[in-house]
Amino acid sequence: MISPNFDERPAPPDMIVLHYTEIDEAASRSWLCNPASRVSCHYLLREDGGWEVLVPEDKRAWHAGVSGWEGVGQINSRSIGIEIVNAGHRPAPTPFPRVQIDSVIALVADIRSRWRIHRAQVVGHSDIAPGRKIDPGEAFPWDALAAAGEAIHVPPATTDAPFNEADFRDAARTAGYWTDPIDGKQPELSALIDATQRRHTPAQVGSAPTGALTETLKLFAHARAAALLEPL
Ligand SMILES: [Zn+2]
To answer: How far is the CA of 159 from the centre of ligand 1 (A)?
Structure first.
């Protein structure tokens, strides 16, 4: 099934955004292809690892919503969206079967090679929409994607340093996060903390931020900067 919910891209994609559906496969397909929903994605990736095209990659699918990364908004314009069938937070994050993650890795690798997208530009919906989205959630194995060379992941830093808001904001900005106003909007500090914890220190989600979160973001930023210099 092809979704009617797309329009033209202003430029080729240079990012990949990973989502979870939070609803089952049939309901996801139906919603993402319903003209009334005004949402879509390029790929729906099933629990058995199979995937299907809902919107061609050269068109702009409507999966990211209000979003920002590296100081730029409207991430739909520059990304390819993959919806991964997963029950989400019901109430705890739902594990992803290994066969499904192997397919995410294979699909991301294929897309990256064809569009020449850096692995540093493979992000989660929560990374680009802090305070609004929490998918693909704390159960998503970024370490497995990174081990396969398809994303960046750093182990959480260990330090007793206290949390400092200015340092945290600087580290988050350098790491790519949306920290400053875009079109008059910006995430709250609490949303930024939640989003960065969710991706980088998932065991800390809901806890008060620490200096270790900031240090982890600095390590992530460093790894991203190095990866962005890799030839494609
Ligand atoms: Zn999403």
So the answer is: 32
Q: How far is the CA of 201 from the centre of ligand 1 (A)?
A: 20
Q: How is residue 84 written in tokens?
A: 């991964």
Catalytic residue among 83, 138, 165, 215: 83
Q: How far is the CA of 64 from the centre of ligand 1 (A)?
A: 6
Give the SS3 label for residue 21: coil
Q: At what angle do helices 189-200 and 165-174 cross, to 10 degrees?
A: 60
Contacts of 91 (CB under 8 A, 6+ apart): none
Distance from the CA of 155 to the center of ligand 1, in angstroms?
Answer: 24
Note if 22 is an active site residue: no
Q: Which CATH number fits the domain 8-147, given the four candidates 3.90.1150.10, 3.30.70.20, 3.40.80.10, 3.40.50.11060?
A: 3.40.80.10
Comparing CA positions, the residue from 68, 29, 62 lying closest to residue 45 is 29
pLDDT of residue 215: 98
Residue 68 phi/psi, 5-degree rounding, is: -160, 150
Residue 26: pLDDT band (50, 70, 90) is very high
The pLDDT tens digits for 1-12 are: 799 999 999 999
- What predicted TM-score, i.e. pTM, was given to this entire model? 0.98
